[in-house]
Every structure is written in C-alpha cells, then in structure tokens.
Amino acid sequence: MADHNELGWKGEEAAVNYLTSKGHRIVARNWRFQGYEVDIISEDGAYIVFVEVKTRTSTAWGNPEDFIGKQRMRRMIQAAGIYLKMNCIDKPARFDIVAVIGERQQFELEHIEDAFLPFL
Fold it and tell me: Parallel, antiparallel, or unpaired: how do β-strands 93-103 and 36-44 relate?
C-alpha cells in the first residue's frame, strides 16, 4: 500500500474511533455506488451523518478541510441522496468533516459538524 493510502486509512480509523467515542453509531465505511463514495456514514441522534475525512501529515500547505472543494461537496450531497433513497431512510442528513493531522498513531482531529449544506 502506498504511504499516502496508508495515511488516509489510518486517518479514517482515527476518525471512526473519535466519532464512536462521541456517541455516533457507524453505519458504513467507504460506501461506494456507481462512482460515488462517502468515507463514513453514521447516526448521531436524529441525524444520518455523511462524513468526509481529510488526513494530512502537517498544516504546512494548509488545513486538511481546505482541500475539500465544491466539486467534492456536490458529489457527497449526490451520494447522500442516493444512499437515503436506496435505504428508505427518512432522517435529516448532516454533512460533517473530520480533519486529521499527524502520522502513525499520533493524530489531532477536528470535527466540523454541519460543515456544509446542500447547495444543488
């Protein structure tokens, strides 16, 4: 596995552990459908939460969340719509970002709830 893929996997694992500790129930990881992908889908109280995880080794080039552009947000919103319809879920959706900075097992996480709203 390439180093950047391993870093991403470890960042997602740290995000799952963090979200679980905050009371989220993880429903799916790396959900994919016809070219759409969501890193983590969880339930948090009344919400179904679609989470984008962005992992970087440092902030030298900017914060991880700054690398999530409108195109990625649009694709995530579309994926959420498909997921909700496919699974007949009638809960309000929320879009969160977990920004992960670090290497190996030493990570700092920032959880940004309601990071963006659907703007289709």
Answer: unpaired
Angle formed at CA 64 by CA 108 and CA 91, multiple of 5 degrees: 90
For tokens 């470890």, the residue is: 10
Here the tokens at position 51 are 């989470």
Reading the block at residue 43, the tokens are 């339930």
Phi/psi region, residue 35 (left: phi>0; alpha: psi -120 to 50; beta: rest), is left
Lowest mean pLDDT among 6-10, 51-55, 76-80, 90-94: 6-10
The domain segmentation of the chain, as residue ranges, is 3-112
Structure tokens at 1: 């596995």
CB 112 within 8 A of CB 95: no
- Note the CATH number of domain 3-112: 3.40.1350.10
What is the rounded CA–CA span in Å between residue 43 and residue 3?
31
How far, in Å, CA of 81 to CA of 31, rounded?
Answer: 13
Q: Of 41, 43, 50, 39, whose CA–CA distance to 10 is shortest?
A: 39
